[in-house]
Design goal:
114 residues, SH3 type barrels, two-stranded antiparallel ribbon, three-stranded antiparallel beta sheet
Length: 114
Amino acid sequence: MKLDLWVRLNITMADDNKVSGWTQIYGKHELAMYKKPFKSLKPIVNDHIERINWLTICNRWGETNQVIELNTSKIKKYVIKECVQPYDTEEEYYAIKEWYRNYMRRRTFLENNG
């Protein structure tokens, strides 16, 4: 049902060079992308960076033809600027969006009345 999550990062390398671009994170992360300022997405990105040696950075999400690869051991810090999770169909997008809206309503209700 889900496609992979694309995250736009501003990266500062160990030598203070700056790199900006999109990276693809595999797996289902549909809830994490809705929570801003991306606090729940940070551990997912950290885990992704820790598991690989080379981080692929693309100019645009979904395009893998213009890429650079960064050695993850040389990354000093990064900031998440944006994220996108493509959907197979528009209906799927709206169904997930409605589900998340209802989920947040229930959660808010329980926090306020629980």
